[in-house]
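Tokens in:
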């Protein structure tokens, strides 16, 4: 199997992602950022708002439209109500990151098996997967940028400008800008160029680099057309949104400079190899291509430093760091492939046994999840749970077998199989944790009346299936023309009804809770609880 994977790496990376999550990812609840994207995609299809993008009928210029265009295209083909269809493009971009990592590794003159391992490390890193749900714009922006950087590497490695590489570089760069503005330019492109200069010294004629610089400017301008268009078409709204977004960089979620220093933890199952791979004095004598290792090391370090400079910090902003970190981890994994059987020092072997032994233990111990899921395990879910337990138990036992034999390459691919099995078999078990009061807003009975909203979350608007006009405006309340209408209100904002009670009789029809966790659980979000009222003019 390993030989087959290494023979067809691109197909293997693609199908790995599809098998891991392509049939089960819709089991996970829609996040707030996803909901915003899905709503805008729905309104592109229903209202034709492809350029001046909207969310719930209001201008939504905080994010550029490329990811939403792609989402809308999949919604048009497979159905705008299908969460699986709307999430599928992000999975394709996870696969693209793995493929681009493999291709770039090859051009860095790494061994074939090393390059393949790099690709798989990238697509199994925790936040590379998690970002597809938590902040879908990011996976598009960084996915396109990595495609552009692959072409840029080709341009740097030769002394003449190739037309195909130049064109693809400009296109992918423009698409990245159209996905999340200059974010990936700063977080991925800039540290890439700095690291390349340190490791490879920019050897070439000055005229060549002037051509590359002109391509960079052209790509940024091409990707910026949407911003210029919106600035002209709706200047007042665009300016207000731009000012608010810019102010967040220095006043919202401000964290200290060292906030990102534990960035390697975001790689998930690769945390220990990630940490060891960053110990430069240890690694420099153990890699087969020091220049390439220096490149990935400095690419990672400068990405963290540049992100640390910005006052606003969130864990998900670290996602682009995991791309160069995957290259870095690959150097350590490749060293283990080559030398682990010959290692005798406990300082070198204990971290390896702990890393993969822990994965083997977790695989064998999955059956303990019964104590958390027992009340909901029946029918098809019970069968799925049993299949998951048996599969992971076998994987765990075989991991221990090959770990004892010091066959690290086999252990590495069994770790990948562990990840694939979790995604393919275990993810749908999330549905067993739906709390008793869960009630989709799509189930409410409008009874022929128009439904308005007050302070409802984007997830609620998406779940409802169409726009819910808001009664709240900057100047106060919108007074509907109807003498009787419905009103959906976030439960935390029910006090807002006091002003309306002067003019309307208010009747509570029901409560709709979109939380999968019950009220007392840690993951319960009050903003997903909504009260449904019917208002009648006095």
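Residues out:
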């Amino acid at each position: 199997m390993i030989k087959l994977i290494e023979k067809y790496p691109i197909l293997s990376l693609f199908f790995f992602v599809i098998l891991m999550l392509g049939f089960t990812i819709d089991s996970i609840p829609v996040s707030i950022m996803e909901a915003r994207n899905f709503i805008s995609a729905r309104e592109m299809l229903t209202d034709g708002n492809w350029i001046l993008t909207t969310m719930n009928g209001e201008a939504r210029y905080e994010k550029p439209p490329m990811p939403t265009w792609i989402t809308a295209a999949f919604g048009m083909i497979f159905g705008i109500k299908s969460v699986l269809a709307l999430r599928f493009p992000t999975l394709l971009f996870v696969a693209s990151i793995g493929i681009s990592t493999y291709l770039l590794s090859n051009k860095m003159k790494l061994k074939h098996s090393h390059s393949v391992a790099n690709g798989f490390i990238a697509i199994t890193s925790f936040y590379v997967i998690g970002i597809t749900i938590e902040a879908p714009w990011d996976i598009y922006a960084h996915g396109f940028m990595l495609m552009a950087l692959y072409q840029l590497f080709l341009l740097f490695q030769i002394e003449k400008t190739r037309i195909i590489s130049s064109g693809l570089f400009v296109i992918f760069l423009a698409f990245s800008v159209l996905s999340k503005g200059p974010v990936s330019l700063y977080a991925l492109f800039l540290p890439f160029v700095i690291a390349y200069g340190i490791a490879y010294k920019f050897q070439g004629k000055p005229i060549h680099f002037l051509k590359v610089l002109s391509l960079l400017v052209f790509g940024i301008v091409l990707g910026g057309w949407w911003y210029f268009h919106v600035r002209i078409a709706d200047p007042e709204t665009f300016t207000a949104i731009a000012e608010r977004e810019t102010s967040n960089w220095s006043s919202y979620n401000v964290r200290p400079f060292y906030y990102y220093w534990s960035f390697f933890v975001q790689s998930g199952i690769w945390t220990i190899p990630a940490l060891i791979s960053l110990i430069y004095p240890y690694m420099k004598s153990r890699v087969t291509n020091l220049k390439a290792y220096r490149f990935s090391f400095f690419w990672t370090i400068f990405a963290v430093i540049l992100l640390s400079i910005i006052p606003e910090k969130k864990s998900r902003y670290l996602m682009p760091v995991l791309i160069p970190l995957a290259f870095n981890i690959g150097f350590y994994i490749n060293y283990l492939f080559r030398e682990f059987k010959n290692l005798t020092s406990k300082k070198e072997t204990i971290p390896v046994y702990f890393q993969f032994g822990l994965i083997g233990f977790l695989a064998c111990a999955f059956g303990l999840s019964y104590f958390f899921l027992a009340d909901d395990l029946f029918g098809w879910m019970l069968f799925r749970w049993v299949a998951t337990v048996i599969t992971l138990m076998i994987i765990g036992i075989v991991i221990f077998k090959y770990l004892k034999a010091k066959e690290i390459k086999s252990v590495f691919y069994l770790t990948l199989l562990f990840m694939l099995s979790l995604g393919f078999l275990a993810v749908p078990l999330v549905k067993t944790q739906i709390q008793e009061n869960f009630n989709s807003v799509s189930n409410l009975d409008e009874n022929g009346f128009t439904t308005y909203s007050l302070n409802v979350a984007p997830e609620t608007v998406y779940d409802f299936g169409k726009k819910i006009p808001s009664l709240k405006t900057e100047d106060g309340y919108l007074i509907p023309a109807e003498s009787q209408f419905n009103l959906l209100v976030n439960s935390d904002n029910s006090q807002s009804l006091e002003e309306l009670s002067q003019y309307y009789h208010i009747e509570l029809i029901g409560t709709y809770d979109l939380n999968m966790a019950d009220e007392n659980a840690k993951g319960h979000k009050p903003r997903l609880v909504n009260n449904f009222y019917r208002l009648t003019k006095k």
